[in-house]
């Protein structure tokens, strides 16, 4: 009879374990962007590369070195890796609840009680036992909890990859800023040299009465203005180096040694092809994938809350071997026990139902946050493409502007030396040229920064290395 009861309990628990609660699922229409294609024009570039190999296609050894250094030791990445290990441990912990728990005990005592009898006796007691318990996952509550923790682990891994992309973008932006400041510093330095020659020539003319003190003052003020601009460019260079030191973990000496190996100019613009389907781009964004995992975790919480309102079944068993010695009396024996425990929530003043409703509300919030993030992602990509297309047009126009002002500067300088143009005319043409040149570099820097921003906006791809186990 006992064995039949045991078999019946096992059969019932096996059958009920297949009756898992249904987890909520969002509609497919809730998960995709409303627009089937991009409304902004896809940006173009002279050179295009595959998105997965974009950084290598820059063909800049200095940038490659800085990128690799930042990926090797970075607090942001180390923090993300630690969160992955924590989430993985929690997920494995949840899986363990699907199996029985077994424990062992061993006790030993030696006692004497003079209040009970006279003469008193010393008593020795000892026992060794095993006990086991197993909560049957009747409704899939444990598996739902495991699913939620696995979703959390997946979210942490996605965040790690996102951190890689963010760190790479941060290094690239600092590097681009550095090269831009260096290029502008070289232009300003060349301009300063030209202004100093003009100042010296004006002073020579003034000494023989061919130039007025006003002309000397103007030339000197022009030189001083250029000195101030050069100091500003140097400040930008030093600040960019500090930023690279912070993000790469290299010493400032190492960073300066690296950047000294490359040309003091901006990298050539490099683009990539953006797929025409927003849904494909959105699904590879890390923040969208994190929100998707949050939806899974919220659905698992709903399942856990539902299971809490249903009956639960646990099995418990124990066996013990004991021994007792008192004077000449010696006792040995075994004890064991086994049985199921059924728990049924009867009255809890609506607490469990309220918790289920709260879990359902959190699931709906997670779906809404996913939808909101999708809209933000589409907007970010669209706006970045609009800015990039505008930047491409402005760069092209500025190149024409620089070429025109350069011709004007050359002609005015020749006329001034010949005495047919004033120093004031020369300074005006020089200022126009310098303004156009610095604007050109600023726009080219902005163009590269927008490509980097678009790279991040569409999800980015950094060569993914295995996460530390």
TrEMBL record:
Species for this entry: Deefgea chitinilytica
UniProt xrefs under SUPFAM superfamilies: Outer membrane efflux proteins (OEP)
Keywords assigned by UniProt, alphabetized: Lipoprotein, Membrane, Palmitate, Signal, Transmembrane, Transmembrane beta strand
Its membrane topology: Lipid-anchor
Top-rank taxon: Bacteria
InterPro entries xref list: MdtP/NodT-like, OMP_efflux
Family: Belongs to the outer membrane factor (OMF) (TC 1.B.17) family.
Residues of the signal peptide: 1-20
UniProt subcellular location: Cell membrane; Membrane
UniProt-recorded name of the protein: Efflux transporter outer membrane subunit
């Amino acid at each position: 009879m006992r064995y039949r009861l045991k078999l019946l309990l096992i059969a019932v628990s096996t059958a009920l374990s297949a009756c898992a609660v249904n987890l909520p699922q969002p509609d497919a229409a809730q998960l995709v962007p409303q627009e089937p294609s991009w409304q902004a024009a896809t940006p173009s570039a002279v050179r295009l590369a595959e998105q997965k190999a974009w950084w290598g296609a820059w063909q800049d050894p200095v940038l490659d070195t800085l990128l690799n250094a930042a990926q090797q030791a970075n607090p942001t990445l180390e923090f993300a890796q630690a969160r992955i290990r924590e989430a993985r441990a929690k997920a494995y912990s949840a899986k363990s609840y699907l199996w029985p728990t077994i424990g062992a005990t061993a006790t030993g005592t030696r006692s004497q009680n003079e209040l009970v009898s006279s003469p008193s006796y010393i008593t020795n007691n000892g026992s060794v036992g095993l006990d086991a318990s197993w909560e049957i996952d009747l409704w899939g509550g444990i598996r739902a909890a495991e699913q939620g923790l696995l979703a959390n682990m997946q979210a942490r891994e996605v965040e790690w990859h996102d951190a890689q992309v963010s760190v790479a973008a941060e290094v690239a932006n600092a590097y681009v800023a550095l090269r831009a400041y260096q290029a502008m510093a070289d232009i300003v330095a060349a301009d300063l040299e030209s202004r100093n020659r003009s100042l010296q020539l004006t002073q020579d003319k003034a000494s023989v009465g061919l130039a007025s003190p006003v002309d000397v003052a103007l030339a000197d003020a022009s030189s001083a203005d250029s000195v101030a601009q050069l100091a500003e460019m140097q400040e930008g260079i030093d600040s960019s180096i500090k930023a690279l030191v912070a993000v790469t973990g290299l010493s400032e000496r190492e960073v300066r040694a690296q950047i000294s190996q490359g040309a003091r100019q901006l990298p050539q613009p490099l683009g990539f092809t953006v797929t025409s389907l927003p849904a494909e781009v959105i699904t590879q964004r890390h923040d969208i994938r994190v929100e998707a995992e949050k939806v899974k975790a919220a659905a698992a919480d709903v399942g856990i809350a539902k299971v809490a309102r249903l009956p639960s079944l646990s099995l418990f068993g124990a066996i013990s071997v004991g021994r007792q010695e008192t004077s000449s009396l010696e006792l040995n024996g075994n004890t064991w026990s086994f049985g199921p425990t059924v728990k049924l929530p009867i009255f809890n003043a609506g607490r469990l139902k309220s918790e289920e409703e709260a879990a359902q509300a959190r699931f709906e919030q997670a779906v809404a946050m996913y939808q909101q993030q999708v809209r933000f992602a589409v907007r970010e990509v669209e706006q970045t493409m609009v800015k990039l297309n505008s930047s491409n047009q402005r760069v092209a126009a500025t190149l024409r502007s620089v070429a025109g002002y350069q011709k004007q500067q050359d002609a005015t300088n020749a006329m001034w030396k010949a005495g047919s143009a004033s120093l004031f005319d020369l300074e005006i043409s020089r200022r126009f040229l310098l303004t156009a040149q610095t604007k050109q570099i600023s726009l080219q820097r902005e163009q590269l920064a927008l490509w980097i921003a678009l790279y991040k906006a569409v999800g980015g791809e950094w060569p993914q290395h295995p996460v530390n186990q």
